[in-house]
Structure formats: structure tokens, C-alpha cells
Amino acid sequence: MNANVPPPSPPDSDRGLSRPDVDGSLPRSTAGSEALLPAAEPPAAVPPEPAATVKAPPAGPPKPSQGAGRLHRLVTVGGTILVLFVLYEIFTYFVAYTDDAYVRSDLVAVAPEVTGRIIAVHVVDNQVVKKGDKLLSIDPVPFQLVVNQWKAQIDKATALLKVAQEELASAQAALASSTDLAAKQFAPRSELDRANDELRRSEAEMTISQTAIAKAQTDIGAHQASLALAKAEMATAQWNLDRTDVLSPTSGAITNLTVRPGDTATINIPMIGIVDADAWRIMANYKQYYIRSFSVGGTAWVWLDSEPWHLHRARITGIARGISRDPGVDKLLPFVAPTTDWIRLQRRIPVTLVLVDPPPDFKLYMGADARAVIFP
């Protein structure tokens, strides 16, 4: 009963467009024209487009295998190491360098030669002294008393010796007189008996005089020995008195001074250290394969860390002929600690270098680091 109701109008966007229905026929345009329009033929089937052909990229060179690349890298690294090693050997053949070097001098340990109380210290720490300068003074009174005592002993021995010498002279004179009287063999008859008595008495006095001479000679020998002993003791006492003033045995600088007045100085116990100003040298420890081309008198160049950016010309004055492999103390052979180089422990030989013509005011410091270069 609703056959005459027109269908709803399409949206504005679809007006005037021809869209096929689901079955492929054209849609009806309006409500009253369905019967007037003939049925449209179905459109011809459109053949599908052929799929696009994908072209393969041009073939490049073949990739190397993984094993060949690794071998190439190993050869490159090995060759580089070999070249560097050869360059290092060539460099070290013409240039001998070490940074294991230091400044050294002689440390003079000054010890008093007598025991006594220190009454004065004439130097301060780090002071520069000359040979013969007075360092400290020990109380001289006890030593002066000993000197006076032996002076008196000398005077006594001298007097006793003089008395013995006079007794000897008197005995010798008496002996001479007795000898002269005994030698007389003529006299008047009236005096013959008296002469015989005097002769016997003279012979007795001669014997006494000879005994006195022997005794006097013995006394003189004893007094002479006593006098010589007194003089020797006197010399020793005077020597000890002179040693109450401790003098510098060399020129240099006082180091680590801790002595104060009132301390007790003990014989042969070091109390003052002096860095010798005339014994400066550089100790350069070179690896043993450098030593083959060194010679005493050769030229070296030294860099001092206490005065950087300056090269000082030096001369080789000594090459050690032996080192100790035991790091013990008080060794006659020097011990040089080995260094690790390519896993092998390289031993080092001390080489002594002395600066050539250093400036007058040039200062060196014992134990300071240094570097040395030698061109063999």
C-alpha cells in the first residue's frame, strides 16, 4: 500500500553522481524515472595491471671472509710493533738517556775528639762554612787543669835530673882526685908512712866515688825517663785542650743541626753533618746494555730538576765495575733497584758524572733528582 511513496533523496554530496549499486547497475536518479530509463549494460571488466618488476642491484666485488680480515689486522699490528721496536733500538743506540739519576756529595760527619760539656755553638743550620771555621766549643777547664798538672811534673823531673847530674859531677871529681894521688909513686922518706895511709884512703874514696857515679847515672836515667813521660803526657793534655774547639774539616754547608749549648759531647760520636762543597757529582744509573759504549772522559748532558730547562755539560769520571744484588745495608758494593721493562728485570750500573765549569754561585742539592743524556 505504500507502493507510490518515493524513495528518500540522496545526500547533497551524492547528487548528480552516478554510482553503481552493489550488483554493478546504475542507480536510480530520481523517484519517477525508474520506469522510463532502460537497464544499463554492465561495464567491461578491466584487466589487472601487471605487477612491477623489481630490478636487482648491480653485483659488487665479493666481500672478504672474516678470517682474512682478522689476519690482515694482526699483520698490521705486528708490523707496527716491529717497526716501533726497530726505531727504538736505533734511537737508544745513538742516544743513552736515563731519568734514574740524582745529585750526590760527601756527607762529612763531624765528631768531637774529647768528651765534655758544650758551652757554645758557633754555627746555625744550613750555614755555609769554610775549612777551619769554629763549629762548637767544649768546656776547656778540666783539660787545662791536666795540662797544668803535667807542667808541674815536668818541672819536678827537670829539678831531680839536675841534682843527679850535679852528684855525678862531684863523684867524678872525687874519683879523679883519688886516681891522681894513687898514681904518685915518689915521696920523701919522712912522708912515706903518711902517704901510704892517704893512698889507702884514696883507694877507698875511689870505690865510693865509683859507686856514687853509678848511682847518679842511674838516677839521671830515671829522671830523664820521668821527664820524657811528663812531656808526653803534657803533649797529650795540650792536644786534648786544643780539641775543645771543634773545627770544620772541609768547606760545605751545615745540615740538620740539632746541637745546643749544654749538651754533652762524646768522643767519636758524630754531632754535626757537613755536605762537602768540593765533592758534587751526578750518579746516573744506566741500563747495562748502554755501558758497552761509555768511556771515562766522555761528554754527558745533565738536566737538574732543581734548575729545570737547563742542560749542563758534564764529564764521565767513573763507571762502576760491580753492583750488589742484595739490598742490604753497609755494603761495599752499591745496590741499584732493578726496573721492570718488557717483563725482564733490567740491572742498572752507576755512572759518575761531574759538571764541567759550573757557575761560581751555582747551587746543588744532595739527593735532588736529575736526568742524563749521553751520545755514545
Structure description:
- It is a single chain.
- The protein has helices spanning 66-94, 141-183, 192-242, and strands at 96-104, 107-110, 116-121, 128-129, 134-138, 245-247, 252-255, 264-265, 272-276, 281-287, 299-304, 307-319, 339-341, 344-346, 348-355, 369-374.
- The protein is an alpha+beta fold.
- The protein has 3 domains: 93-105 and 280-374, Beta Barrel (Elongation Factor Tu (Ef-tu), domain 3); 108-139 and 245-273, OB fold (Dihydrolipoamide Acetyltransferase, E2P) (Beta Barrel), CATH 2.40.50.100; 141-240.
- Helix 2 (141-183) runs antiparallel to helix 3 (192-242).
- The model is unreliable at 1-6 and 11-38 (pLDDT under 50).
Distance between the ends: 130 Å
Point out poorly predicted stretches.
Answer: 1-6, 11-38
Strand content: 15-25%
Write out the strand line-up for the largest beta sheet, numbering strands in chain order.
Answer: 1-10-15-12-11-16
The total count of strands amounts to 16
Average pLDDT number = 79
CATH superfamily annotation of the largest domain? Efflux pump adaptor protein, beta barrel domain
Biggest sheet, open or closed, and with what strands and sense? 6 strands, antiparallel, barrel
Structural class: alpha+beta
- Structural domain tally: 3
- Output the number of helix runs: 3
H/E element sequence = HEEEEEHHEEEEEEEEEEE
CATH-assigned fold name of the largest domain: Elongation Factor Tu (Ef-tu), domain 3
Instruction: Give the radius of gyration.
Output: 61 Å
Task: State the share of residues found in helices, binned by percent.
Answer: 25-40%
CATH architecture of the largest domain: Beta Barrel
CATH C-level label of the largest domain: Mainly Beta
Shape: elongated
